[in-house]
Amino acid sequence: MSGSMASLRRKINSAGDLQSVVRTMKALAASSIGQYEQSVHALADYYRTVELGLGVCFRLSTPGAIRPEQARQTTQNTIGAIVFGSDQGLVGQFNEVVAEYALKTLAALPGTPQVWAVGERVHAHLEDAGMPLMGLFAVPTSVKAITPLVGQLIVESETNHGQGEVTELLLFYNRPTLGVVYAPVNQRLLPLDDSWRKGLAEQPWPTKNLPEVMMDATGALRALISEYLFVSLFRACAESLASENASRLAAMERADKNIDDLLEHFHATFHRLRQTGIDEELFDVISGYEALAQEK
User: Fold this and answer.
1) Neighbouring C-alpha atoms within 13 Å toward the C-beta of 221
2) CATH class as words, domain 24-251
3) Is CB count within 10 Å lower at the N or C end of the chain?
4) Per residue in 227-245, pLDDT tens?
């Protein structure tokens, strides 16, 4: 009996320590979600502004204003992909979902894709699936750390795109959604071809005032294209980080509830064993008293 109670005490103490860790992780995830969600909301307006500016430039510019390397077409397309995941665990099916979505989407495209992974966990899933991986990037730990990562991704994509190794670049990441924690999405980042330009040029202007380009049209267009690439990668990374922390928060909430149920079971068992031990001791005392009374 004493051995069982001692074992239960150890289990209760271990579960209590684990619950403290889980609640600390919950607090960290909840605080991180806020900064990434604010970044995503701020980027939404800026992204819309950049798209409107590009649409104006494309409507007012001539076809020759686009740089030749952006408008070129090749007979053989090489698909490149950047998949955003996580470096840390305790995020549920976060990495599995985006990896499976990327694999399924890329399998339907022609040729052998070249993939860059952001996060060790998603890198491992893609590697296990036999996907050819070109590189691994560390996941940013704050909003300020996203900018250096975006710079590395832009350099990597422009280098391969300029050398003709990658003619089309896709982004795969988890986006926060209502109703569920997140959902995997993809965005076609390159090439900046006729269909992309046509889609932006056909977007309606939000006011009745006619827009115009005040500076050099070619310079404005190139500046807006650079901002478009930057904000697209920044938004994808920020939304992925927001989804990661939301997934971690949901996982920690489930773990916290399971630990509460387990502790409740342990405490009930402990009290039952303790009461059984007390009853047995009382029976022994009463039996001894009755035996002494009969002898007298």
Assistant:
1) 21
2) alpha beta
3) C
4) 999 999 999 999 999 999 9
